[in-house]
Amino acid sequence: MITAVYPGSFDPVTNGHLDITSRAARVFDQVIVAVYERPNKRLLFSAEQRVRMIGQAIQDWPNVSVDRYESLTVEYARQVGAQVLIRGLRALTDFELELQMAHINQRLDPGIEVICLMASQSYSFLSSSIVKEIAALGANVSSLVPAHVARALGEHFAD
Ligand code: ADP
Q: Disulfide: which of 6, 35, 91, 92 matches 68 by Cβ 3.0-4.6 Å?
């Protein structure tokens, strides 16, 4: 059985993340969307909120679950018995960073493979940062994120 971990900040989860998750779920037996609790960036949502939003989005996908972690990603993957790390690639700019991270992870644990899925064309422009930026300006983000995430963004920026 192959278990894949899809790690990220998911602040918040977008339709692009969910596209990668559902495609990974067709390839691997089990996919764990793993929320990195304290990434080196300013967060809008707490780890609990990010986990809850993903949980609601994946509730009907039988081989997908959500979890959170604080340790090194490869350490977390080892802990849950995963053999694969999934990442999504949107553009050349993603590639540089992902290649660097894949090399570091390979060095830390050569037993874990990093597999990158290409972003679907329709989501290749989409990032959590873009969603937050336009939601902050009051724009409608309902075509970019699940309805409950759009609602949470609306509530956040209404305050
Ligand atoms: P991180 O802080 O780890 O980059 P993100 O939540 O921004 O966390 O992204 C998690 C992963 O999902 C990364 O591999 C990123 O490249 C990928 N990703 C983000 N948005 C998209 C998208 N629209 N389509 C495909 N992959 C994406």
A: 35
The domain total for the chain is 1
Q: Whose CA is nearest to atom 18 of ligand 1?
A: 88
127-152 pLDDT, tens per residue? Answer: 999 999 999 999 999 999 999 999 99
Q: What is the CATH number of the domain that holds 51?
A: 3.40.50.620
> What pLDDT shows up at residue 38?
87
Angle, vertex CA 61, rays to CA 32 and CA 145, nearest 5: 85
What is the per-residue pLDDT for 91? 86
Q: How far apart are CA 123 and CA 45, in angstroms?
A: 22
